[in-house]
Amino acid sequence: MKRNYNLFYIVIIIILTTFACKKGTGDDNPIIPPVSPPVTGNIVYKSDYAYNLNVVYFVPNNAIANADYEERISKILIEGQKFISNGMKSWGFGEKSFGLLKNAENTRVKIHLIKAPLNSDAYANYPAIETLVKAYFQQNPQELKSEHYLVLTASNKKYDEGETDTHAIPYYGVGRWCYAVDFPGLKYENLGKPGSVGDKATVYIGGMLHELGHGINLPHNGPSASQAANPAFGMTLMGSGNYTYGKSPTFLSYFDAATLNNCQIFSKEVKTFYGAVTSKVTEIDAKYLNGEIIVSGKYTSSNPASHITFRNIESSDPDGYASITFTTKPGADNSFSLKMPVSEFIKKGNSNYTLQIFFHHENGTNTSTSYAYKFADNIPVIDFGDRTLLARTGWTISGFSTAQGSFVATNVLDGNANTYWHTSWDNAQPHPHFITIKTGASAVTANGLSINTRQDTQAGAGKIKDFRIETSNDGTNWTTVYNGTMALNGVQYFSFNGAKTFNYIKIVSLNDYLGEKFASLSEVNLY
C-alpha cells in the first residue's frame, strides 16, 4: 500500500525499525472507550524480564474472537521466543529473548482483548487501531509493560480454505508496533504440513514473527552466499523468512542478534532506553584487495556502540530484504575495521550498492551513515574514502528552487547528516530544481563536489538521479562543469575535469529515482 508522502519522507536516522515492511495509512480515528482487561481467573502471569511485549487481540464489531485464540497465539509466541533465544545463543549473546508475561506452566501468554466499536473496514489501516489500543492502556496503565506492541486483528475468514477478506487488515511493522492477523485454525502445529494448511501457517506465523522483528527494531537483511547454501542457516527471518519459517531452514542473523541485544524487551534490568544519539563517522578508508572489501575508520558517538554492522544494500532491493551484512565489535578509541569477502555477495555483476554503517547503541537506539559504491564486471569499485574537504567558513545559500517547512536549504551546510533540504511537496513543482551556494567572500579552488543523500535507504522520491553542476564567479553567468548521475544513497564524490576556481556553485536536479517532482540533499561539500 502506498504511504502518505509527508510521513514517508521524514528521515529517521535514529533507527527504530525504520526499515519496516510497507504499510498502510488511514484517517479513521474513533475515540471510543475500550473494554476493561479480560478476567483471567486464578492465572498469574510472570516474567523474568524487566519489560515485556504488550500483546493485544483486537476484535472488530462485525467479528468474533476465533476459537482457542489464547491457546493458539500463546503457542506461536512461546515457540517464537524460543526461536529468537536459540538465535541469540548461537551468536554468543546467551539464552535471551523478548519478554513475555506467561503462566507458571509456560503454556499461556497474557493477551489483552479489545473489542472495537466499528466494523472491520474501519480498521483497514493502523492509526484507527493504534488509537484504541493507546486508549485501552491509558485506562489500564498498570497493564502497559513496555514500548513494544503486537496487535493481532481477528478475521473469521478461513484463509487455509481459500476464504479472503473484502478489505485489507494491517499486517506490517511500524515503529515499535507490529500488526498481524489471526484466522480460524492458525496453529503452530500446522507448520510443515502439505498444501494450503502448511503454506498459510508459514506465511502467517513466519510473517507475524517477521513483522514482530520490525516492531522490536529489526531492519530487513538477508543471508550471505555461504549461509544461503548451508542447511544450518538457510534464509534470514528478516529477509524472506516469512515464506520459509517452519518449512525450510530459517535463522536469526548476527545483525539481528546485535540489534536485539540492546532492545528494551530483551532487558532483565530497568534502565533508560531509546534516548537520542548523535553519531558521526570522522575517518573512513575503503578499498578492494585480494577478493575483499576492506573498510576501516573512526567515529564519535554520544552513546556507546556495542556492535557495528556493515549492511550492503543492492539498488534493485532498496528495502534490503537481501542485503548482505557483516557485524563486528568496535575497536579501541571508537575505531572500526572489517573485511568483507566478495565471495559472500550473492549479486555482483554490474550493480550499484549502498554501504550502510549501522551503529548498535547500548541504549537501544540505532544510527547509521551510508556510502555509495558499485560492482563493475564482478569487481567492487570503491570511491568513498576520505577526501580533504574545503572549510565551509562563510558559505551561504544564495538561491534554491523551493523548500518544504523545516527542510530548509541551509541544512546542506549544517554538518548534520540527519537534516536535509527537501523541495516543497505542498506546492510541488517539476524538475529541474536547484540549490546555489556562495563560497564566502572570495572564490575557492576545488577538484570536485561531495554530496550526502537523505539518510533513509528505502525511499526513491526526492533522491536526485541525473544532475549537473554549474559554477560562477558572479552568480549570474554560469559554466557547466559536470553532468552525471547520483547513486541512490550515501556519501558520493564527483570530480571535475581539473581544478576549478569559482565563488558560486549550483547543483541542478534533472529527475529523481521515482520519477516524481522532488529533490533533496543532506550535505554539500567541496574537495
UniProtKB/TrEMBL annotation:
Pfam families: F5_F8_type_C (PF00754)
Domain of life: Bacteria
Gene3D superfamilies tied to this protein: Galactose-binding domain-like (2.60.120.260)
Residue ranges constituting the F5/8 type C domain according to the UniProt record: 377-527
InterPro entries per UniProt: FA58C (IPR000421), Galactose-bd-like_sf (IPR008979)
Transmembrane regions: none
Protein name per Swiss-Prot or TrEMBL: Discoidin domain-containing protein
